[in-house]
Each structure stands twice: as C-alpha cells, then as structure tokens.
C-alpha cells in the first residue's frame, strides 16, 4: 500500500506538470485552431531562462516569473511575426511551427549546451516532508508543484469563466467567425492567447527544471504529452486539460511501477479509447 500511495503521488506530480504545460497548448489549439508544435520549445526556453536567472540572482520565484515572461514574449513574437500570417491554413502553420521548434532547439543547444540542468531550490522547498498517514518522506518541491498547479488551475478557471477576456476566448472556441463579425480585434486576441499559453509553458519549464531537470529533448517529451492530454481532455477546456493530465500522469506512473515493459501502452490506450468513444475529448465540445 505504501508503494501504491507513493506511485499515486508521483502520478499527481507528473499530472501537475502536464497540466501546466498542456493548458496553454489547449487554449491556443481551442481558440485559434493552431497546432503549435513549438510549444515544447517555449517550455524549454522558459526552463533555461529560469535556470539562468536563479543562478544569477538566487531567487527561485524570480526565475519562475522570468521564465514565464521569456516564453510569453517568444510566443507572442511567433504568432505576430509568422503564424498570424497563415491564419486558417492549419497545414502551413503546423509545418512552420515545427521549423520554429527546430530552430529554437538548435539556438538553445548552442547557447546552453547539451548538458542537463536542474534549478537550485530555495531552502523552503528543498528537502522533504514526512507524510503522517504513510510514515515516509516526500520531496517538498513535488508537494509544492501540486499546490502550484492547483492555484494556476483555479486562476485560469476564474479568468476563462468570470472575466470579459475569458468570455471572448470561450466565444472564439464556439464561433470564431461570429467573434470576427462583431468587430473584436482578433489579431490582438490571438497574440494575447499565444502569450498566455507561452507564459504557462515557460513557468512549467522552470518548475520541471526544479522538480526534475531539463536538457535537449525535454521539449519533445512535453510536446507529445501535451498533445495526448489535449486529445484526451478536449481542446479549449481548462477542466479538460486537468482531467487529461490526471489520467495521463497516473497511467504513466502506474505503468512504470507495475508493468514497466508495457508502461507506454497505457497512455496511448487511454487516448485511443477516448478517440473511439468521444473524439472531441472527455470535456471538449463537438464541432457544429
């Protein structure tokens, strides 16, 4: 039972990371119908920038903010300078974002090298906490990660459900043509959503570099995971991203613990099952 609970906590930790990474991807995909294949590169950029800022200043919180802002700026530039000119042409956008991802990965490899980095944790988050029910210790950063993802999830829910900007995003998910016809500045909205998605990815990169580590290839790992989470949960839905991340994170950890040879099969089995039964995702809306 102790092993089961520890594996469950590890699954929740991984789900929190996947949620942070996939939420921005889900919003971009849901509103703009753009499969941003550079999303993983934005996450890696945020992680690298956050690491550099923490090393220079010694402030972990400042590193998280800097990583999020760097990825937000990069995302806004990608949308404004490249993908925005291809709106409505999904194939061109997908191919262009793949090219951007490769270029960004090579530039980051040139600047930061091919070694693995781990962000230095503040004293408050270093070490572990003893879990009273299990009688074992668990890393403080992992517990903080779950709390951080919960706070971000509540904040995003409030933004999407209770603010005018969120209402515009939800309207765009339902009927983008009507939103344009009503005179809303679609280009500025798209740039804002892209920046928001990049910020979430950048913050996830710093947190991932703190709880785990980052290195070349981390971008592809989280990009694939984000795609699976969005497919399972449904695009454009914060709740869907949370549910999809929870299912994928737990499936990966249970698979690694109890059936390591077939661990990856569980994740893709969930995806295939959802596609067969509910193609729009568990909490996604069917196209009209």
TrEMBL record:
The keyword Transmembrane helix applies. Its main location: membrane. It is found in: Cell membrane. One of its GO terms (biological process) is amino acid transport. CDD domains: TM_PBP1_LivH_like. It comes from the Bacteria. One of its GO terms (cellular component) is plasma membrane. Keywords: Amino-acid transport, ATP-binding, Cell membrane, Membrane, Nucleotide-binding, Transmembrane, Transmembrane helix, Transport. One of its GO terms (molecular function) is ATP binding. The chain crosses the membrane at residues 6-29, 36-54, 60-83, 95-113, 133-160, 189-214, 220-248, 255-277. It is a multi-pass membrane protein. The keyword Nucleotide-binding applies. Belongs to the binding-protein-dependent transport system permease family. LivHM subfamily. This is ABC transporter ATP-binding protein.
């Amino acid at each position: 039972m102790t092993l089961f609970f520890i594996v469950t906590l590890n699954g929740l930790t991984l789900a929190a990371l996947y949620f942070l990474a996939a939420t921005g991807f889900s919003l971009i995909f849901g509103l703009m119908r753009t499969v941003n294949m550079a999303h993983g590169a934005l996450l890696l950029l945020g992680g690298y920038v956050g690491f550099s800022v923490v090393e220079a200043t010694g402030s972990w919180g400042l590193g998280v903010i800097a990583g999020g802002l760097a990825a937000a700026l990069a995302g806004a530039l990608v949308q404004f300078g490249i993908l925005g000119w291809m709106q409505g042409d999904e194939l061109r956008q997908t191919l262009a974002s793949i090219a951007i991802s490769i270029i960004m990965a090579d530039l980051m490899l040139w600047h930061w090298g091919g070694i693995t980095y781990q962000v230095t944790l503040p004293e408050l988050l270093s070490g572990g906490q003893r879990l009273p029910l299990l009688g074992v210790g668990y890393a403080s950063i992992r517990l903080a990660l779950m709390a951080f993802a919960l706070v971000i999830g509540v904040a995003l829910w409030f933004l999407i459900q209770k603010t005018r900007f969120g209402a515009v995003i939800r309207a765009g998910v339902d009927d983008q043509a009507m939103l344009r016809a009503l005179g809303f500045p679609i280009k500025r909205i798209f740039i804002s959503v892209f920046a928001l998605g990049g910020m979430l990815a950048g913050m996830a990169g710093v947190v991932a570099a703190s709880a785990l580590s980052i290195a070349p290839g981390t971008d592809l790992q989280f990009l694939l995971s984000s795609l699976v989470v969005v497919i399972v949960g449904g695009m454009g839905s914060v709740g869907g991203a949370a549910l999809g991340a929870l299912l994928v994170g737990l499936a990966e950890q249970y698979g690694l613990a109890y059936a390591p040879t077939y661990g990856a099969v569980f994740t893709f089995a969930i995806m295939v099952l959802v596609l067969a039964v509910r193609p729009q995702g568990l909490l996604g809306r069917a196209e009209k």
